[in-house]
Amino acid sequence: MEVRSTAKTVRIAPRKVRLVLDLIRGKKADEALAILKFTPNKGGAVVYKVLKSAIANATHNNQLDEEKLYVKACWADEAITLKRFMPRAKGRAYGINKRCSHVTVVVEER
Question: Comparing C-alpha atoms, which of 39, 44, 64, 43 is closest to residue 54?
Answer without folding.
Answer: 64
